[in-house]
Automatic annotation (TrEMBL):
GO terms for biological process: Gram-negative-bacterium-type cell wall biogenesis; peptidoglycan metabolic process. Residues 88-246 form the DUF218 domain. The chain crosses the membrane at residues 12-32, 44-69. The keyword Transmembrane helix applies. It comes from Chryseobacterium panacisoli. The keyword Kinase does not apply. This is YdcF family protein.
């Protein structure tokens, strides 16, 4: 059952890829033309593709999805007052890029570093012990957790306060592998730091593994309503569409008892 659902969602993920959608439309039109049938259907598909490009490229769809994914996490700074005596900050990796055989953190990672450090600094300033758990292996030779750790140390975070979870390859594993570490520490509060568009799915997965994290969104994305479609709007819209599919997958698996 889980294998079939995994396969289904992998297929659905393809429909959040612009090149796949364009390829699919071209193939369908070509097949219909080859059989010299259904001219109206070919025209309809062509019109549908054009409308989809406009609808996605002009930012309207992205604007709607952006609000759904992120609006709950815009004003979360006041939650820091609920720290208690031993808060834990869980930071999710944001990817690694390889430039000239040198591995560097993805640009999105640095907003997460800054947000986590601001929390950490505020707690330490008030003499509240605090730990940072960095979750992420990534696909490079050096783990995301290690690269995050190097940056935190340069900012003045004590090595004693840094815990590296360097096995996870995706958000599901972030939650699965980080949760036992957090539970052993028995913190009064757990802060989850990741990007705004990624937060809803991340919170749902951490809740699946028995935690109730306080969301601290580090960055936000949005589209701009434009007269003419542009690649900026399209790129962010497709990123958020994939996130929607991920949220549905978590919800369905939870309802069927297949997560965990």
């Amino acid at each position: 059952m889980k294998f079939l659902l995994d396969l289904l969602f992998r297929v659905l993920q393809l429909f959040a890829e612009p090149y796949f959608l364009l390829f699919l439309a071209v193939v369908i039109i070509a097949l219909l033309k080859r059989k010299n049938k259904r001219k109206n259907l070919r025209i309809g598909i062509g019109v549908l593709v054009v409308l989809m490009i406009i609808f996605i490229g002009n930012g309207f769809l992205g604007k709607l999805i952006s609000g759904y994914l992120q609006k709950s996490y815009v004003n979360t700074s006041e939650m820091k007052n609920a720290a208690g005596q031993n808060p834990v900050i869980v930071v999710l990796g944001g990817g690694v890029v390889d430039i000239n055989n040198t591995e560097k953190l993805h640009t999105m990672s640095f907003s997460r570093i800054v947000t986590a450090y601001q929390l950490y600094h505020e707690f330490k300033k008030n003499n509240i012990p605090c730990k940072i758990i960095i979750s992420g292996k990534g696909k490079g030779h050096t783990s995301e957790a290690e690269l995050f750790s190097e940056n935190f140390k340069k900012m003045g975070v004590s090595d004693f306060d840094i815990i590296k979870e360097d096995k996870s390859m995706n958000t599901y594993q972030n939650a699965k592998f980080s949760s036992p570490i957090v539970k052993k520490m028995a913190p009064t509060s757990v802060y989850l730091v990741t990007s705004g568009f990624h937060m809803k799915r991340s919170v749902a997965l951490f809740q699946t593994f028995g935690l109730k994290p306080i969301p601290q969104a580090s960055d936000f994305i949005n589209t701009e309503i434009t007269i003419f479609p542009n690649s900026y709007n399209a790129a962010f819209t497709f990123v958020m569409l994939k996130e929607i599919l991920g949220i549905w997958q978590v919800q369905i698996y939870n309802n069927l008892g297949m997560n965990g």
